[in-house]
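Quick start: read one record
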Amino acid sequence: MKTIDIIGKETLKAQVDAVLGEIIAIRRDLHAHPELSQQEVRTSAKISEYLTEWQIPHRTEVAGHGIVGLIGGRTSRRSGGPVIAVRADMDALPIQEKNDVPYRSLNEGVMHACGHDIHTAVLLGAAKILKGMEDELPGTVKLLFQPAEETVGGALPMIRAGCLKDPDVNAVIGLHVDPDIPAGHLEFCRGSMNAASNEFTITVTGVSCHGAHPHNGVDAILAASQVVNALQSVAARSVAATDAAVVTVGLFQAGAAPNVLAGKAVLKGIVRTLDPATRSLAVRRVAEIAEATAAAYGAAAQVDLTESYPALINDDQVETILEGAAASFFDREQIHFQPQPSMGAEDFSYFCSAVKGAYFNIGTRSLPEGPSAPLHSEYYCPDERCISAGILMELAGVLALMEKLD
């Protein structure tokens, strides 16, 4: 008999309701004390405090301020079975909150504007309930509380620190808040969900001279401007129209005086793609086009490329199991499907590249339907009804994966 059937769906929902008040209080505390990437000292300490209170063994200071907890397996009478990891990121953003709520940020210029306080609270709620049913689990649950998602991509350092080992993880899941979806609703995506990213710096070198005699120099600003324009041909002409690619130049620095031709210009930007072949092509064309265009204007271009996050591609089997679990606990109108991949990057992609994994969204928009502040806004204020939906989906997903994962 399936674990969900043994426990009972209504019992599982009742357990979520029973912890909800405590978890909302935890979320509000986290929201009032946000911490930036790689500075999650208090946040990590509070998570450890809760896990200790609930007698969940865990390691702290994993790849910085990360935490890895363990439920089931060697910590209970049941052993064997698949190991399912659940990840929550916990860092905040350098934004001054403008919401007028009792639990608004107390840290000047820092805010949980991307919902990582919700992510962390949801996983804590799921962890408390899973600990209570530990002896009935047909496998092991790993809790991954990850720092530094917003900056350096804390997922990869955690993986390198062994968070997916001892015991080896068979599948990993995670969630993200979405202000475009009503609270209590879910959104899934099959296949590619988020783009890969490659950052670049292009240094264009010319010859500085007096602005009255431009023929005596090489104008780095002119050459760099043409590079910016030419780079748009990567998506328009180098990549097939059926594939996705975005090339953005977000920084242009050059010049020191209005009457002097600049001898150097620096461009910084990012390439976003959805599949590995397109990624290789786009990155190669950025370098080729920058160098050739600068040369056409008598300048030289040095291109430095940094490989960032891979594309987030949901595993077909894990995704199918999650969708089936959602259908067992949520009404059809509460389940949505992302119509197309996002060209934004998400470091959960590192987990999906290492093991089978899937990512999904939980809605945070208040009903009745109306405008909602977007993520990374100083006015982002999620409807806390999303917390119970997130906890229930993580529980249902973990239990279903333990029963059905190959």
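The two ends are 17 Å apart (CA to CA).
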